[in-house]
Design goal:
By secondary structure, this protein is an alpha+beta fold. The chain is 38% helix and 17% strand. The chain has three helices and six strands. A hairpin with a 5-residue loop joins β4 (72-76) and β5. The longest helix has 25 residues, at 96-120. The termini are far apart.
Length: 121
């Protein structure tokens, strides 16, 4: 089940670009995924508590906020190598899950660039 959540680094970057949805997990000072106690269900308002969204929540966030729909297509090359194409970005990933992580990193970069463009204007 842990593979369904974003990494601690991704969670921090998502918080920086404005993600603050309800999550089933969180990271605290150590980068280990935790389950919140029921009396502290998100959104989290503690500095030491970092929401850990599911990957599906991240894709929904980017659909709703930026109108970006995720597509990860699998292509089998003649060499029997599996290549995943992510939207307009291509890459050689060994698994669908690895491609998902790469796509989340691309989405975070898009959000950071949009945030930087807004702050410069």
């Amino acid at each position: 089940m842990k593979s369904e959540f974003v990494t601690a680094k991704q969670a921090l970057e998502l918080k920086e670009v404005g993600f603050n949805g309800q999550c089933f997990g969180y990271y605290n000072m150590d980068p280990q995924l935790k389950s919140p106690p029921f009396n502290m269900f998100p959104p989290f308002d503690h500095d030491w508590c970092l929401p850990a969204p599911l990957k599906s929540q991240v894709f929904k966030y980017f659909r709703d906020k930026y109108g970006i729909y995720n597509t990860i297509d699998r292509i089998i090359a003649h060499t029997h190598q599996v290549i995943f194409i992510i939207g307009g970005f291509g890459g050689d990933y060994s698994s669908y899950e690895e491609a998902e992580d790469a796509y989340i990193n691309i989405l975070i970069k898009i959000a950071k660039d949009a945030k930087d463009n807004i702050s410069q204007n």
